[in-house]
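Input/output pair, single chain:
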Amino acid sequence: MNLYEHTIIARQDTSPSELKQLTEKYSKIVEKNEGEVVKTENWGLLNLSYLIKKNKKGSYIHFKIKGKGKVVEELEKNEAIDKKLLRYLTVRVKEFDLDTNYFGKKDDIENKESAKN
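Output:
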């Protein structure tokens, strides 16, 4: 089984309920193709580096997936035709970093670090 980190960027006008539907839709595609979604993170609405299809911002959803190459192939095939998505990216990794929350609020991160010490 390969490990993948997969990120999708939805349009800025996508509602929270639509984001939840997108998350469920792509999680089901992974499971149908004998994969496993280890973790899902909603990074929220972030600024884009440049305009993509007239959007300045995008809602980021990040998946950590275990599976074969067929899983990624099927995911990307479905995402290419989805009008709600601006971009997607899949990266194969050697291991998952399940502890670090890169897009958490600074106060939350500092509290967790002080709790560890």
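The chain has one domain: 2-116. The longest strand covers residues 36-52.
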